[in-house]
Amino acid sequence: MSRICDPAGHKYIPVEVKELDIYTGIYEILSAIRPDWPQANIKFKVFTDGITNKLVACQLDSANNSENNTNIVLVRIYGNKTDLLIDRDAEVRNITVLNKAGLAPKIYGVFKNGLSYEYYPGVTLNTDTVTDAKISRLVAQQMARMHKIQLGDEIPKEPMVWDKIEQFLSLIPEKFTDACKHASRYPSKDFQINWIRIYLAEYLDNPSPSQTQIEDIYKDVQRLSLASNFKWGIWSLVQFELSDIDFDFGRYAEMRLNRYFEEKNAIYKELL
């Protein structure tokens, strides 16, 4: 069935980008959202940081590229069978809500197995930069601003982590087609307490949140870190079987699940 718009009201492009021939599909997408771009003047860059999707930057080669980010369009191609793991309609809806709040890029169009959106200059955070004092402060403040967004009645408010864990467990195959441990760089309690203090100051519009408030959030974070490790460990096992992306999902699953089992008893003893 043909569509003009996706569920969130964005332009729908009836194109499927093929795994082994991505540029043919991308040219079709660009002809729909940037019809004035000559194909001969378009340059591509494939980003390699993602482990779920493929991300391609499409840039119009012109004299003022460095000053004009509108000459760059990002095309995200969903990974193989990731629709089994991710509600893509909800993803587009959430990006749209965040964009209106100034916290996410604008979506230009949605196609059969991906979406195209605005380019934001920046770099991907890593385990070093995410714990930098200046950067971690910005992350905490932005997360608090995101959590203060008032959602409409049509958006579910219930936590999704348990439903997602059950969904991921149902997708793990009984037998895989292919049959280290990392030094922990997990943030210390002092780092977490300071991060939570910055987050609450922004979220509560109060520069001096109480120690009780900070400790309560810290305890919640410890409990939910177990759920996070378990969830992403299961997700990695599913990706290990389904994904075509060059990433060691099996090793990542081992790392996250080991962390879950190693920390479970210690965390609950600390919190009791």
UniProtKB/TrEMBL annotation:
InterPro entries: Kinase-like_dom_sf. It is an enzyme of class 2 (transferase). Its EC number is 2.7.1.82. One of its GO terms (biological process) is phosphatidylethanolamine biosynthetic process. SUPFAM superfamilies: Protein kinase-like (PK-like). Pathway: Phospholipid metabolism; phosphatidylethanolamine biosynthesis; phosphatidylethanolamine from ethanolamine: step 1/3. One of its GO terms (molecular function) is ethanolamine kinase activity. GO terms for cellular component: cytoplasm. Keywords: Lipid biosynthesis, Lipid metabolism, Phospholipid biosynthesis, Phospholipid metabolism. The keyword Lipid biosynthesis applies. Pfam families: Choline_kinase (PF01633). Belongs to the choline/ethanolamine kinase family. This is ethanolamine kinase. It comes from Pararge aegeria aegeria. The lineage of its organism: Eukaryota, Metazoa, Ecdysozoa, Arthropoda, Hexapoda.
